[in-house]
């Protein structure tokens, strides 16, 4: 392909250029069919260099022996050919990268890792709790059977204990410490603020109350 470019009078340079362009086109088609070769990028780069060099020769050397219309045609052909080879280069690089990293292929059906619809959209049924089901003696700190009281416990004052609030009316309970668990039941018109609960916050049979807390689990029944 790298023939002597010395210009000689009475030489048909149209035939020479056509031959060179067809040679580049043929090589390009061959590389398209075998982009997985180890040295394909090297060959593509060499082909790009040949096409660019030939285009420069058309503009700087062959123009002396070619018609203006022929120069325009050859420059356009070579421009499109260079673009085509560049596209081939990008495709080859992509294939090489995909070959270098091929993720494991697994066949998953459409329901893989998806729960059943009835489980996904079914709301949890509220648990009806009987008073006899809960052992109130397990709560180390409790406030029971009070009306119109305001109680505040600061950080570190509870010993990370569990808390029972039972049968309160119009009370304000503020706990700024971290508690292990909290049970609130049978309270009316109360304001309860517990900063943090490590496990569960359970609320049963409360009416007209404002309760603010942060807990890992939350259970309630009859909380209008």
From TrEMBL:
C-CAP/cofactor C-like domain location: 122-224
Signal peptide bounds: none
Record's keyword annotation contains Transport: no
Coiled coil found in the keyword field: yes
GO BP annotations listed: post-chaperonin tubulin folding pathway; tubulin complex assembly
This protein's UniProt keywords: Coiled coil
UniProt feature coiled coil, ranges: 14-91
Cross-referenced InterPro entries: C-CAP_CF_C-like, CAP/MinC_C, TBCC, Tubulin-bd_cofactor_C_dom
Gene Ontology cellular component list: cytoplasm
Superkingdom: Eukaryota
Protein family according to the UniProt entry: Belongs to the TBCC family.
PANTHER family: TUBULIN FOLDING COFACTOR C, TUBULIN-SPECIFIC CHAPERONE C
UniProt protein name: Tubulin binding cofactor c, putative
Species this chain originates from: Plasmodium reichenowi
């Amino acid at each position: 392909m790298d023939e002597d470019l010395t210009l000689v009078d009475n030489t048909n340079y149209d035939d020479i250029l056509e031959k060179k362009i067809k040679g580049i086109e043929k090589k390009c088609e061959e590389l398209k069919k075998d982009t997985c070769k180890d040295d394909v990028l090297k060959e593509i780069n060499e082909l790009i260099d040949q096409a660019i060099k030939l285009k420069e020769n058309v503009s700087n050397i062959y123009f002396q022996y070619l018609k203006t219309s022929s120069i325009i045609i050859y420059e356009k052909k070579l421009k499109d050919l260079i673009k085509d080879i560049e596209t081939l280069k990008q495709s080859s690089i992509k294939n090489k990268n995909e070959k270098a990293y091929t993720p494991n292929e697994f066949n998953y059906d459409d329901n893989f890792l998806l729960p059943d619809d009835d489980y996904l959209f079914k709301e949890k049924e509220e648990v009806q709790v009987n008073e006899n089901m809960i052992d109130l003696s397990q709560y180390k700190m409790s406030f029971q059977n009070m009306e119109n009281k305001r109680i505040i416990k600061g950080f570190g004052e509870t010993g990370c204990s569990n808390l029972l609030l039972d049968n309160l009316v119009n009370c304000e309970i503020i706990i700024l410490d971290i508690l292990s668990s909290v049970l609130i039941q049978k309270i009316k018109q109360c304001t309860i603020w517990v900063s943090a609960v490590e496990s569960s916050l359970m609320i049963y049979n409360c009416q007209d109350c404002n309760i603010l807390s942060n807990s890992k689990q939350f259970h309630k029944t009859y909380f209008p």
